[in-house]
Amino acid sequence: AQSVTQLDSQVPVFEEAPVELRCNYSSSVSVYLFWYVQYPNQGLQLLLKYLSGSTLVKGINGFEAEFNKSQTSFHLRKPSVHISDTAEYFCAVSDTGGFKTIFGAGTRLFVKA
Amino acid sequence: DTGVSQNPRHKITKRGQNVTFRCDPISEHNRLYWYRQTLGQGPEFLTYFQNEAQLEKSRLLSDRFSAERPKGSFSTLEIQRTEQGDSAMYLCASSLDGAYEKLFFGSGTQLSVL
Hints:
- The complex is a heterodimer.
- Chain A has no helices and 12 strands.
- Chain A is an all-beta fold.
- In chain A, a hairpin with a 5-residue loop joins β10 (87-95) and β11.
- The radius of gyration of chain A is 13 Å and the shape is globular.
- Chain A starts with a strand and ends with a strand.
- In chain B, a hairpin with an 8-residue loop joins β9 and β10.
- Chain B is mostly beta strands.
- In chain B, strands 2, 4, 5, 6, 9, 10 and 11 form a 7-stranded mixed sheet that branches. In chain B, strands 1-3-8-7 form a 4-stranded antiparallel sheet, with no helix packed on it.
- Chain A binds chain B through residues 4, 6, 9, 32, 34, 36, 42-46, 49, 51, 90, 92, 94-106, and chain B through 4, 31, 33, 35, 40-45, 48, 50, 55-56, 91, 93, 99-100, 102-103, 105-108.
């Protein structure tokens, strides 16, 4: 079975500062990794995903994530955040042979002016 | 692509009543999922359909919960004899085949059990 741990429940950051949202996963099999974002009063939408190949994955809105197999991590980063990035971010994992996507508890990113 | 549609958006019910939610997935998507999300938590997997077949149901789901997807199109989630602990946001998502495919989520149905 897979599990996902998001190490920070809330991350406050000033506008234009860099940010990293941390995610660790646990699985005994190969996995696919995802980051989803939920803006206030909106449904979840995909930011980016890692399937295979290059460990650095670029997503929408300037976000990127790096897959680190030895550390079982998939941290999300953005070099310069905007007020509009304020949202809840969810790391998720699914095993390559299955169908079920498991989500972490989420990290609330709060960007301050 | 009209997106995943869920109805109703909000449902308030009294403890012990039955409720039913509807999800209309993106038309060409074979897979349909139900998740439950409570405040401060991520979506929790409830059940999954491949076309009309329900292939897995979470062990966390009691017998009061039932889901259907007749003809592999829309899906319904019914909760019988609701309890206050059932209060949550119920999310529906759909996807194409493949564990690597992204999930498209609806806006959810917020259930409040009084």
